Amino acid sequence: MPSANDCWGIEVGANAVKAIHLKRDGDDISVADFEVIPHKHVLTAPDTDMNETIRVALDQFIAKYEVKKSTVIVSVPGHMAFARFAKLPPVEPKQIPDIVKYEAVQQIPFPIEQVEWDYQVFADPDSPDVEVGIFAMTKERVGPWLENFKQAGIPTHGVMLSPIAVFNALNYDHKLKDLPDGTVLMDIGTQSTELIITERDDVWLRTIPIGGNQFTEALVHSFKLSHSKAEKLKREATSSKYARQIFQAMRPVFVDLVQEVQKSLGYYQSLHRGAELGRLIGLGSTFRLPGLQTFLKQQLQIDVRRLDQFKQIDVTGKQASSFADQALTLAPAYGLALQGLGLESVSCNLLPKDMIRKQMWRAKQPWFAGAAAAALLGVGVAFGATVKSMANDENNPKTAYAKQVMTRAAEQANKLESIKTENPADLAKNMINMFEYNNVSACIVRDIDEAAHAINPQPPIVDGDYPGINQIEPDQRNQVLIDEVVITYESGLGQTSSPSADSEGGSAAEWDAYRPTYAVQLTGSTPNTNAENLLHQHFMKYLKDNADRENRPYVITDVKLNRLRKIPKIAKAGDAEAATEAAFQAPQLNIGSIDEFDDFSDWGDGGGAMAGADAGDYRKYLPKNQLISEGWAFTITWKVALRPPGAKPGDPMPPLPGQEGESTDDSSGDDYGG
Fold it and tell me: Among 31, 229, 258, 464, which residue has the fewest nearby CB atoms (within 10 Å)?
């Protein structure tokens, strides 16, 4: 379990990954390390793979620092998450969670089961009113975001909104709640600006969709530069001899930003009558732009300051100047690390609930082991003296019982040892894997449907237009009629149990030996005179061409046309019932198997091979589909080999049990008969 007095706060920004490592000793905290790793390209730049760029920076970070023994709190940008504030009626404290959940359902613009959410209650001891902040992020966003850290090998113990982290940092560092009036924190990021307003213990957030990227785009259009050159010009604007021209080019963005800030401040003051905002503190590297601080002060009529240093933490030595230079951008990471140390003002954790449960389980495992050990120790003490006294008395009836108890105690002790090394996630993994392949049958049926469409059936056949189908000559119909599909499970090499679960759901060697498969047998018919070509070049070719694809949990193998038989001609096309009755009027023959006949073309008139018969039931040999008056009956077989959990299309698959070295050419198994 990571230390509660040792935490890394990591913020992934659009320009760089920023991190602070704080350690706590009583009431004192110190900076153990800090790091700023710029991205090769700004995440918002055209043609930039955001996740790949993030992982490259995180890989550089983890190569330099050991974080697994520390708590790690990460942030998500404000524009990717959601924050709402609502006033609650005066209620009993125990009722607040239920009311908050109701408010969350009303306030969050997504189904509640599709988001990770948390809340913070803001209560003034001098007022009966209770205000709550609700923070949420969709699961489809938080999952891929955390995957970047997982791929880099960085554990995550908490996820916080970046603007909340900024508030926690400044509230701790500048003691904002002790100030007589309110403070506006303005963090200008690359894609958006986070506006955080705080008065005493209250906090209010708003994300403005204007950030440093808009300033860069203004330079791109004004000076006809590439995005990268415009970004460089913006960063060097302060020292550039063209500072005035740069400022003029960006002035429209300044105006838009100020207007949005004015609207936000006005809205806040309409909600909080009598609110007095005494200062604005600017953060973010964009705040270094020439003239921005003065422009804001003139337009907003408020004291505007830029965050140049922290008061509660500092770095000495060679890195002191670098740390001071990065103060504008390190506030979110600072606030994240404070949460890991338990020094935050607002708690917010959007870490998925299943990850939190796993962390709690790992933390409790040593206690479970200790409790089991204590129980076993108690058993040993209680029975030790008794067993010792009876050990030399073989005739004592209690001796056998005592030995049984000690044997069971030894077994429990062995189980205790296994618990110490056992990963409880393995059992959960095995149970989850039970559902991994619950769609196999449905996918097989879908394969058959798609393969049947691959023979290019005429529109009336696709639409089920029977009069239209009758207008097409039977031997020209691109039609496959399915009579029966049999799916049989085959476990690999005669095994009956699945591979043991590990971090990948079973080792490669275990799965290669196990290799579970399903055998599929499809029987059907087609009136098309060129049945063999229709089945080989279209139906079966589709199965082979799509044997290994993304949306299937298996790989199709060993596709074979096992039987192709001529269907006997019925006297009147489409009148299968009349043909059945005619057949029963003919002399009958005791037939052992349909496979004994190659050509049944003369069945319709009751002659030929059937003449002189004396017993038998012809019904089973007649076509099952009344639209088939003559044609071909066929049997196609194939196997579907399940992928190991986590395997992807294209991954090498071991051969089927008993098929090692055999040809995959389906013609080797064909048995057409006549």
Answer: 464
Crossing angle for the helix pair 227-235 and 243-271, nearest 10 degrees?
Answer: 80
Q: Give the pLDDT confidence score for residue 348 in this predicted structure.
A: 87
Q: Which residues of 190-224 are buried (b: 16+ CB within 10 A; e: fewer)?
A: bbbbbbbbbbeebbbbbbbebbbbbbbbbbbeeee
Alpha helices in 284-326 (DSSP H): 292-300, 320-325
β-pairing verdict for 202-208 and 277-283: unpaired
**What confidence tens digit (pLDDT) does each residue in 41-59 have?**
888 877 889 999 999 999 9
Task: Among 242-251, 339-348, 662-671, name the one with the lowest average pLDDT.
Answer: 662-671
CA–CA dist 616, 488 (Å, integer) = 31
Tokens of 23: 């350690």
- For 86, the token pair is 């609502």
**How high is the mean pLDDT of the chain?**
78
Q: Give me the amino acid identity at 488.
A: T
DSSP-assigned states of every residue in 529-576: TTHHHHIIIIIIHHHHHTSS-TT-SEEEEEEEEEEEEEEPPPSSTT-H
The contacts of residue 639 (CB under 8 Å, 6+ apart) are 490, 517, 518, 519, 520, 556, 557, 558, 656
Q: pTM value?
A: 0.56
Q: Which of 96, 90, 85 is nearest to 128 (CA)?
A: 90
Residue 362 pLDDT > 80, yes or no? no
pLDDT at residue number 259: 94
In the predicted model, is pLDDT for residue 659 greater than 60?
no
Residue 630 CA to residue 304 CA, distance in Å, equals 90
CA distances for 240 relative to 19, 229, 232, 234, 246, angstroms:
30, 14, 11, 9, 9
CA-based nearest residue to 197, from 221, 170, 173: 170
Q: Which residue has the tokens 């000076």?
A: 223
| Cα–Cα distance, 594 to 148 (Å, whole number) | 61
Mean pLDDT, residues 533-554? 90
Q: Are strands 70-76 and 28-38 parallel, antiparallel or unpaired?
A: unpaired
Mean pLDDT of 369-398: 54
Helix axes 212-223, 227-235, angle to 10 degrees: 110
178/521 Cα distance (integer angstroms): 78
Angle, helices 243-271/212-223, rounded to nearest 10 degrees: 150
Give CA–CA dist 261/267, Å, rounded: 10
Beta carbons of 556 and 544 less than 8 angstroms apart: yes
Q: Tell me the DSSP string of 360-413.
A: HHHHHHHHHHHHHHHHHHHHHHHHHHHHHHHTT-TT-HHHHHHHHHHHHHHHHH
98 in helix, strand or coil? helix
Phi, psi of 176 (to 5 degrees): -60, -35
Specify the DSSP class assigned to residue 25: E
Look up residue 392 and give its amino acid.
Answer: N
Beta strands 158-161; 70-76: pairing state: parallel
pLDDT number for residue 374: 57
Structure token pair of residue 625: 């589909």
The H-or-E segment that residue 278 falls in is strand 277-283
In eight-state DSSP terms, residue 113 is: G
Q: What are phi and psi of 441, to 5 degrees?
A: -60, -45
Rg (CA), the chain: 37
- The string of DSSP letters for 46-63 reads TT--HHHHHHHHHHHHHH
Residue 659: exposed, middle, or buried by beta-carbon count in 10 A (0-12, 13-18, 19+)? middle
| Residue 593 burial (10 A CB sphere; 0-12, 13-18, 19+) | exposed
